[in-house]
Design brief:
Shape: rod-shaped
Strand content: 5-15%
Oligomer: single chain
InterPro entries: TRIM_RBCC_E3_ubiq-ligases
Strand order of the largest sheet: 1-2
GO cellular component, one term: peroxisomal membrane
Keywords: Coiled coil
Mean pLDDT: 83
Radius of gyration: 45 Å
Low-confidence stretches: 179-192
Number of helices: 3
GO molecular function, one term: ubiquitin protein ligase binding
Number of domains: 2
Structural class: mainly alpha
Largest sheet: 2 strands, antiparallel
Distance between the termini: 77 Å
Order of helices and strands: EEHHEHE
Length: 192
């Protein structure tokens, strides 16, 4: 029975079979270890790619924030310029209104407190004051309306080539809709 043969069956020593199986298992394990290393490498590549994508997104967010801050700064500058003009117009009108109110109140006070003879005596002087006021027609105070629109803020993107992702385009469209109803003027836009 230990000669390795038995009625059409071949027997092998247990150590030999064990060593052969261990060798095969080790070979498979080596292949799996190699596969494991490849998967770790691929995982690290994906992790690097995740970081690159996140950094690219953060860069775009910084660019948009900077562009929006620049737009706001330019809008504030335009507002300041418009308000300076309007405050000048307002100040001139306010001074004229105060002057006219003082004149009207002074004449009314005279009418209420001064004698009839004095009113008759001061009549030419009072009419001269009125004539002086009428020499400056109200059309000289006609203020030129300051337009309420502002220069489109998207034009402050100074790049000749701007690349927008779809979400950035949606944000631009939203900003554009809020700021105005006119076209966004950018030299070239590509959607990726």
């Amino acid at each position: 029975m230990f000669d390795g043969k038995h009625a059409q069956h071949a027997f092998r020593p247990l150590d030999e079979v064990y060593n052969e199986h261990v060798k095969q298992i080790q070979s498979e394990m080596d292949q799996l270890k190699h596969r494991h290393l490849e998967l770790i490498s691929l995982f690290q590549d994906v992790e690097k790619n995740v970081q690159i994508v996140k950094q690219a997104k953060e860069e775009r967010v910084r660019e948009l924030r900077n562009a929006i801050e620049l737009m706001i700064t330019r809008l504030d500058s335009q507002l300041k310029s418009k308000l300076v003009t309007l405050m000048g117009q307002r100040s001139e009108l306010f001074q004229e209104i105060e002057l006219l109110e003082a004149l009207l109140q002074g004449v009314q006070t005279e009418l209420d407190t001064v004698s009839r003879a004095e009113i008759i005596n001061r009549y030419p002087e009072i009419l001269a004051l009125f004539a002086e006021v009428h020499r400056k027609p109200t059309t000289t105070f006609a203020t030129t309306p300051v337009p309420a629109d502002f220069i489109r803020c998207v034009s402050c993107l100074d790049s000749s080539y701007v690349r927008f992702s779809a979400s950035a385009l949606r944000l631009c469209f939203l900003l554009h809709t809020i700021v105005s109803n006119r076209c966004v003027c950018v030299k070239q836009i590509t959607v990726r």
